[in-house]
Amino acid sequence: MLNKRSPGDIIFDAINAVVMIALMFVTLYPMYYVLVASVTDNIALLSSPGFLWYPKGFNLGAFRLAFTHPLLLSGYKNILIVMVASLVLNIFLTLCTGFFLASKNLLFKKPVLFFILFTMFFNGGMIPNYLNIRSLGLYDTLWSLILPGAISVYNCIICRTAIEAIPDSLSESARIDGANDITILFRIIFPLIKPTIVVLLLYYGIAHWNAWFSASIYIQDNYKLPIQNVLRAILIANSNVLNSAASENDQINQFAETIKYAAIVITTVPVLFIYPFLQRYFVKGIMIGAVKG
Questions:
Q1: Domain residue spans in the chain?
Q2: Which of the four pLDDT bands, split at 50, 70 and 90, describes residue 262?
């Protein structure tokens, strides 16, 4: 026989539902507003402050202008180059470092671990990093966006935790059969921690996609800027970067406000589409090895 719900349970569920709906609205409406504003007529948008529930004067001119803008196209190309090169380097170095940190009875492991963790809390600062990039000949190249962020200590710790959760008997059996460390790492450990690798790809990928500060310091050529720097230039009304690339195009004035929202949609949609495919790995990847018994 089912237990009858008390009035207190009903009231609690009702309040909980109202709060959840309110939170959902607060979370989703800003994204909905940006999408609607991007296809709204520029004049109608400027004359309609406050909430916007539907497109007023449906117009795709901002998207057409954005996709023909040379900096947006070059920004997408640059960020894709940076992400492909960076993610391969990120995962390789993180996997090797995590394997080292998870290994037992290694010579000088504790001193090396100390220096690795030290870099997690302290760094040389912006000016020494800038001078280092210039002295290495990386200034105004995409390598200045790839090499300095080649590895994250926090992600290495996540990778180490995942590797430590793998039974030692697997590695010991492989060594008996003649496998070396490289074979064990890439033929045994790597396939077993794929959920964690996917999570690390997501962490590194989002970090590279959203990064803009490094490019604003190390990149001088506008056509080498990644997409977030182009978005920042568009959002800043009097940006010299945008004005120099636009070649005084009169269409900019017709979509001065809506092109900002169109640029936000263009730079956000790829991440929103990719994340659902990786979400099923997220909880398993981040929690693997966290519970030991």
A1: 7-60, 64-287
A2: confident
> Please, what CATH class does the domain formed by 64-287 belong to?
mainly alpha
Q: What is the pLDDT of residue 81?
A: 92
* Cβ neighbours of 117 (radius 10 Å): 14
Q: Where are the alpha helices (DSSP H) in the chain?
A: 7-38, 42-46, 61-67, 70-102, 109-121, 126-135, 143-146, 153-164, 168-176, 181-183, 190-192, 194-210, 213-218, 227-235, 240-246, 251-254, 258-287
Phi, psi of 124 (to 5 degrees): -70, -20
At 105, list the tokens. 């009875």
3-state DSSP assignment of residue 233: helix
HSE-up of 174 (CA within 13 Å, CB side)?
16
pLDDT tens figures, 74-111: 888 899 999 999 999 999 999 998 888 888 877 788 88
